[in-house]
Each structure stands twice: as C-alpha cells, then as structure tokens.
Amino acid sequence: MAIGLAIPSGLFFRNQLFIDSCVFVGTMFLNGLKMLIVPIILSSIVAGILNLPNVKGLGKMGATTALYYLMTSVLAVITGCIFVFALKPGLSHSLPAGQLLGLSEEVMKKVPDISSSSIADMKDIFLRMIPPNIVSAAAKGQMLGIIFFGILFGISGQLINSKSKKTLAGVVQAIFETTMKMTELIMYFAPFGIFALVAKVFAQTGMDALRPLAIFFVTVILALGFHFFITLPLILRLFGASPFEHMKRMAPALLTAFSTSSSSATLPITMECIEKRANIPNRISAFVLPLGATVNMDGTALYECVAALFIAQAMGIKIGLFKAFVVAFTAVITSIGVAGIPAASLVAIAVILKILGLPVEAIGPILAVDRILDMLRTSVNVFSDSCGAVVVSKIAKDD
C-alpha cells in the first residue's frame, strides 16, 4: 500500500511501468486462482458427500449436527447480506466506487446487466443448473451447473455398492487432496500477487481507495462480530449453556485460530478445549469437530457473501432479492468445500463472481484487507464448531 501511494510522486519508477508490472504479476496470481475453481469445487463437493458416514447409523447426533451446521451457515450469510445492504460499502457518496478502487475500464466493460430478476431470468438460472454438457459448462465457468453435477454425482456415489463406493471415494479424495496441495503452492505466491494487485490500486487512485475499503473492512467486522457475539451466544443460551463461560473455555482455540488462520490446524486445540475445559464427551467431539472443521465455515460464508455484494455495488450493479438468494446459496455451498487453509476462500469468492457474471479481476482491491479478515473469520468458524459440539451434547446426550 505504502509503495503504491509513493509511486505517483516518482520516488521509484515511472508510474505506468510500475502499474504494468503489477498488472502482469497480479494477473498471473489471479489466473492461478481461476485455474483451481472447477477442480476444487467439484472434487470438494463430491468428496464431502462420499465421505459422509452411513446416515442410518448416525442417529440423533448426526441429524442434530447437520441441522446445526446448515442453520448457522444460513444465519451467517443472512447477517452478511443485511450489513452489506445497510452500510453499502461499495458506494461512495451514493455512487459506485469502482473507479476509486482502481477497477479499469476494461474490467468495468465486462459487467453484465443483472439488476433485473424477471421470471425469464429465474428460468434461465434453473436451466443452467442442469447443463447438457458438463465439460462445456466447466469450460465456460457455469458454476451452478458444476455444483449441481457435483451434488448429484456425490449422492449417486453414496447409493452404489460399498466396494465401488470405497474405490470411488478414495479416488475423489486423492483428487481433492491434490487440488488442496495445488492451492497451497499457489498461496506461496500470494504475497507477491497480493502486493502487485494492492500496489496497482493505490498507484492509480492514491488515497481515494481507502474510504470504500475501510467501509468494507468495518462492514465485515461488524457482521462477523454480530454472528460471534449475538447469534452464536443466543443459540448457546437457548440450549442452557453460558456463552461467556464457553468463550473463556475456548480462548486457547480462538487465539490459535486467529494466529494461524486455519481451522484445520486449530482442530487439536479445539478438541482439547472442548473435552477438558468444556467437559464434552469424546464420542461427540470426535465426530462434530472434525466434520465442522471441514464443512462448517460460518465466517467464511459470511465473508464470501459480503465480498461478492461489495464488488457488485462497486461496479454499479443492483442486486435484487433473487440474485441475493443465489449469492447466499452459493456462499453456503462453496464455504462447505473451502479447505481450512489461509486465503482459500478467495477461490470461493471467484466462484460467486463467476455465477454473477462478474470478472474475477474485481477481487483485487479487497486483497488489501483480506489477511486480517481471514484471521477473524477463522476464529468465527472455530467458535461455531465449538458451539455445535455443545448443542449436540445437550440434544444427543442419550443417543
């Protein structure tokens, strides 16, 4: 940011040369993210469904866990939508902030007219969910069709004989783990890509970009804070648990989640806090927490929703109720497939932008504040998992 602000004054290189260099490096990073979209979403959804335990054997504990995870993710996304529509971070003096955020005319020209939500638009969206050619849909980035195909493929895989199912699950899991490793490798390049994208924005716009980014930053923090301090504590209180005491017991896990930005890396600490400090039985924590670290990403879903709607506002797009529902639905689904590693949600945001027909390049400006928000949303993810263990222990104690 500081280097980008210093460039116009001529302290380093000629302005245009610096901007062109940043565009080159930033585009390479974004292309890496785009490359991962289809394989990571498809493999994560299919692997997640195939790896589900036998539903008949889960009983009350499994049903309660699934319902809790779905409910809290939906509540998180609704919270994000409310805050972004109320605070309008993508607008500056009631005008779209795209130019202030350094979005080029070339990027702005890619914006389609999606402000309307007529019956014909809805019909077209549902038709795209069932593509006649899945390969063509993947090539064109039709993510709704890929998500639907992944869900249908996973459910069908659950219904085949156990031997074939085991083989299929092993292959898909291997593909999923490979895509996760690819994500990690690309994330090693992230500091350079993020530097280039952020420096380009501030070299072009100066201090003008700070205001919309600051409002976006505050919007995400307020929404995450509401879910962390209001929604989840109310759920705990509803089931007879003390929210304040539970926060104290989970403090080591929350600090670890904040510092590592990884719910997967925090899992051992989370399980120790739940079992030894919150006195939740191992049979519950051993099922609820590992599953939650994989599929329950309240903070991530909320952030994806706010980020996508912020970008839409900044590009002058009015999102109606139906489009907001599509964004919310996609945020919940993609958050399930996001790995518990730092910055992996950038791929999920790219998926939502694809569904809205927005250019992935528009993700660049928010990278300036993504790291801190990543730490915060991971803490929300872990806290939600721990609350889930408490709720399941209260409901399924006799299961």
Outline:
77% of the residues lie in helices and 1% in strands. The chain is mostly helical and 399 residues long.
Largest sheet: 2 strands, antiparallel
Strand arrangement, largest sheet?
1-2
Structure annotation, total helices: 18
Q: In total, how many beta strands?
A: 2
Helix content: over 70%
Using the coordinates shown, work out and report the CATH topology: Proton glutamate symport protein
CATH architecture: Orthogonal Bundle
Q: Identify the overall geometry.
A: globular
Rg, alpha carbons: 21 Å
Helix/strand structural class: mainly alpha
- Proportion of strand residues: under 5%
Q: Could you name the ranges where pLDDT drops below 50 across 5 or more consecutive residues?
A: 9-14, 113-120
Textual characterization of the structure:
This protein is an all-alpha fold and 399 residues long. The protein has one domain: Proton glutamate symport protein. The protein has 18 helices and two strands. It has helices spanning 2-6, 15-50, 55-87, 105-109, 119-128, 134-140, 143-159, 162-188, 190-205, 210-238, 243-249, 251-260, 263-277, 282-295, 298-314, 321-337, 345-356, 367-395; strands at 91-92, 95-96. Strands 1-2 form a two-stranded antiparallel sheet. It is globular, with a radius of gyration of 21 Å. It starts with a helix and ends with a helix. Mean pLDDT is 80; it is low at 9-14 and 113-120.
Write the layout of secondary structure elements.
Blueprint: H1 2-6, H2 15-50, H3 55-87, E1 91-92, E2 95-96, H4 105-109, H5 119-128, H6 134-140, H7 143-159, H8 162-188, H9 190-205, H10 210-238, H11 243-249, H12 251-260, H13 263-277, H14 282-295, H15 298-314, H16 321-337, H17 345-356, H18 367-395
Antiparallel strand pairs: 1-2
Helix pairs in contact: 2-7, 2-8, 2-9, 2-16, 2-17, 3-10, 3-14, 3-15, 3-16, 3-18, 10-15, 10-18, 12-13, 12-18, 13-14, 13-18, 14-18, 15-16, 15-17, 15-18, 16-17
